[in-house]
Structure formats: C-alpha cells, structure tokens
Amino acid sequence: MTRGMLDLIGNTPLVQVTCFDTAGSELWVKLESQNPGGSIKDRIGLSMISAAEADGRLQPGGRLIEATAGNTGLGLALVAALRGYKLTLVIPDKMSQEKVTHLKALGAEVIWTRSDVGKGHPAYYQDMAQRIARESGALYVNQFENPANPLAHETTTGPEIWAQTGGQLDAIVCGVGSGGTLTGLSRYFARVAPEVEIVLADPRGSVLAGYVATGTVGIAGSWLVEGIGEDFVPPICDLSRVTSAYVVDDAEAFATVRTLLARAGILAGSSSGTLIAAAVRYCRDHADRPRKVVSIVADSGAKYLSKAYRDEWLADQGLLQRPGFGDLRDVVTRRAVDAQLVAVAPDDALRVAYARMRLHDVSQLPVMDRGALTGIVDESDLLVAALAGERAFDRPVRDVMTRKVETLAPEAPLTDLVRVLGEGKVGVVVEKGVLFGLVTRIDLVNYLRRRAAAV
Length: 455
Ligand SMILES: Cc1ncc(COP(=O)(O)O)c(C=O)c1O
Fold this sequence. Notes:
binds pyridoxal-5'-phosphate; 455 residues; six-stranded mixed sheet; 15 helices; alpha/beta
C-alpha cells in the first residue's frame, strides 16, 4: 500500500540483460521507466521541488517555470499537480504533440517558442523561461544549474544501485542530458566505492565524449536519440570521474533498443539504445576480466513507438540497414516488394482511403488492382469529393482517383523524377514491369538529406 504516487518514485528494479554478447561480463539495467511519470526525471522533479520548498523559494500554491518538453517536464508536472503548484513549461515548437498533450493533461501551462534559434536569442526556450520567471516572479527550476538535480541521484539512484548489486559493481554506463545522473552517481561512488568506473555513452554529434577525450568542446552535429547528448557542457555536469567515453551513432542505438524489446522484453526509450550499445562495447573491451556493469533505461519506449519502433520512420531517417541500389529505387521509402506500401483497391470506399491515410500518416495512396497500379487518390481528391456530396465517403475510390502518376525506370536520372514531382505528379518506380514503389516529394527530400549526411 502506498499513500500516493510520489511514494512510488525511485526504488526501481534492476534487471539482468543477457541477449547481447558481453564477452562474459554481466550487464544489468535499472528500469527508470517504472517511475510513476515514466522516467528517471521523476526523481529530480521531486528533489528540485522539495529543495525549493525547504529553503522558502517556493510558497504554497506558487508557480514554477521550466524550459523543457521532455521527461523533466513530466516529472515536474506530476509533483506540481500532487503538491498543488502551478507549472509553466516553455517548449520549442518541434516537440511532439503527444508529449505536450500529456503535460497539459497533467495541468501544466504550455508556452510555445521557436525551435530554430540558439542560446542568447530571446526566443530560445531557456532564455525565454528565464525572462518570464524574472518578470512574473515564478521560480525558474533550471535543471541545468539546479544542485538538487545531481543531489537526487547522489542520495537515491546511487545508493539503490549499490544496494541492489550487493556492493559488487565494476562500472556504470550513463548518458548526459543535464548531467544530473552522471554527476550524482559520480559523487556517490567517489565516496562509497571510488573503484567503480563511470563510463559515458554519448550520441554521435554530441560534444561530450570529445570533451572527455580532449578537454575541448567541439562543434555539435545532430542526432535522433532523445534526452541525452549536448552541444555544451551543462554547468552542473561534472565529467571529471568519467574513465572512458563511447560514441554511439543513431543506427546502432535504434537497432539496440529494438533487440532489447524483441529479445529481452524491455520496452525502452531511444537513449537506452545508446547506453546499452556503449555498455556492450565496454564489456567486450574488458573481456580479459569479466565485469559487472549497470546501465540505465531512463524512460519507456511507449512514447517512441511511432519512431524508434516503426520501420517506416527508421527508413525515412535512413536508419534501416538495407543495401542501396545506386538508382531511383533508393529514393523509395515504402517498398511494394517488402509489403510496406499502403494502398487501396478501386472498389474500396473513400472512407477506407481516408482511414488508411490517417493511420499511416500519408497524404496519398496508390490504387492497386490485383497487383497493378491503376491510379492515385490523394487528400485533394478526398476534399473535392467530400465537398460535392453528403454520401461522398461511401463512394468507391475508382470514382475520384486520378492518374497523376508517371512511371519511371530505376535507372532514370534524378532530373526525371524532379520534373515529375515538379508537375505535381507522383513518381512510380517500376522494375521490369513490377511496381517497386512510389516516390513523393517528401521521399525525395528525405533521400537528399540522407545523401547530404553521408558525405
Ligand atoms: C531519456 C533520458 N533522459 C535523461 C537522461 C539523463 O539525464 P541527465 O543527464 O539530465 O540526468 C538520460 C540518461 O541516460 C536519458 O536516457
């Protein structure tokens, strides 16, 4: 029995993972996804609010403000809701609606800001939160500078890991968002077991692994795993006890979380892929003396189902390992041959076409008649039909489909495809009489971006 959800924060399970080749080492993961708000950030939501209450910065019914749409927002929103505080979150406009819906449903007020500006710009989410706090008297929580952030891990996460491993531990593999987890664990283990190695797992593109290796902050790139990696070293982040750092690229991270689910049944967020891939490499690098290693599942994969766990999204990002052809076939995201192409039949009702477009988040569908492409139905066709009559959605697709398609051979030059798309048509790649797949504008943009990233 428990008196409320806040009592369920922490004391998360530690589970052994045996589905990777760890060269004889034991790999364990701490399931922070089991916290009531779904992530490791519940711990700091509780500790940062409790610290502000204790030193009088936060009065009953007071307002907090933070710049985040991520797990920290959820952790704060959970604690604020249960302790009667108001919470404002400043959120860059690239964040997913799902996360924002969750935050609003917990009672947080959301202020959108631009995601295309950097530190120092008044619209940058952190600068904006700071200014609103100054002007309104709300308490700016600022996880990047708040000492109660690492303190939560020093006083709870660290002791839990030490007790759960029975005091037998060689290394912890950890990522850095604000640096709270790594710093808190570093401080705790420096006191109780300084021989425990602190290993950094960093997404390729983040500057932190480079900083550990050289002491200088390089130029940041971009990465897709969420919650870890930075383009600066956060003020509370103390990397001085990091003994080694591993850089993990997105493809390896996503493949790793997928394996973790399929083989160990653990539904983990994308950052766990980076951490566990690094932990596995660390184990293999120490095959001479098998170790006991702990890593972290910081949040649940439930909120990444439409990304990390969806082949089409990975293919759009160029992260699905499949051989290239060196021709137009490489531009096709959803291949007919792999049954990835979503289609309708000419006799399907428009209702079916509408439902499929929404379900698969596409704006047009090929109309296939016994394996042969007979047309295309797109959003504008649906709109014209819907405006024209009440029973429009019962009408068959064949009534409204268009033939705005042009067939291209795989070896056709890219300029042919550009012309077809420029004419508002959909390109259809047909190989020896067999449909290979459709190419829309966004497929071409994704392809060009992948190509640019590869050089
Ligand atoms: C999703 C996610 N968020 C946050 C963190 C850690 O964040 P911080 O450095 O802010 O403690 C991790 C670390 O593993 C993570 O995976």
